[in-house]
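Example 3.
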Amino acid sequence: MERKSLDGESRALNAGGFRHPMERPLLGICIVGSVVLFAALLLVAFNSQTVLSFFREESIAAYRDESPEAADLSDEEIIALLPPETTELLARIESLNPVAILLGPLAVLLLTVWAMGREYGKLRANALRITARQFPQVYAMWASITRDLGMKKVPDLYTINGDGVLNAYAACVPGFRSFGALYSDILETCLRNEDWDSLKFILGHEAAHIRLGHVAWWYMLFKFVFTFPPFNYIIGLPLGRAQEYSCDKVGHAFAHDHDCKGLLMLTVGKHLYREIDFDAHMEETVERGGLWATLINLSSGHPILAWRVNAIRKGHNGGLFLRRK
Ligand SMILES: [Zn+2]
């Protein structure tokens, strides 16, 4: 269903249509991987004595095969001679507790509630809530964007002193509420410059994180295991980069700003971003390549800013691992 936005344009955006094509497959790997890992741990925990005796016997037999002089030693004596990594593995299998594993997802969920609750608490304690009475123009824009994205309830929006840092984020306290936050320098810059395009882009990007479920408890639960090395480099971080590309596209659908000033502001700060020679910047950062920049991209949850700008500008799906011209 189409809605009449406050700026007069009639639109209703299907945010899912802006998803980066790799977002769903990577999330699918997270879901399947988490379920398989959980099931495997449970299986081992419920059969720990069987698994333990199997590994003990295998380890002892392997040691006897490799060390003929150990033929006369007892099993216990050989166990004492096994490499530390093997004894550590045996100790870990022995310590697996099925109840603790069953409670694992609940623990992650409670941890998420605690972490997100603290973020929300910081905003409630030290930030300014943007409402119909407080920066009404900004609130109207946020309300319009979130409604256009199909949200029935307008999420809270706050602005908080970032001490010069330019940033914005969205989050959700599971079972409680979703919210967005703008660091004050971003808001101040957009308002002083009457830069509505950048503001729409940033608000659209953050609203998209909420609409696409990136801040939902289940999304974070399934991602949890893949936020740790080495899985984060092949799954967790690329998924984060895909999410950013997805949200950039939604933000751009609201702003229609092909110069991507909302992202250039993050590149050179609040004063210089409107003076950038866009083509020279793209030529330098995208056309001419860059091994080291690619390495930075691989270890980051956000794609390189120039790649994000280029993906919007060219209307393609940005590269998750390698630069895409
Ligand atoms: Zn983002």
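The mean pLDDT is 91. The chain has two domains: 3-37+101-314, 47-96.
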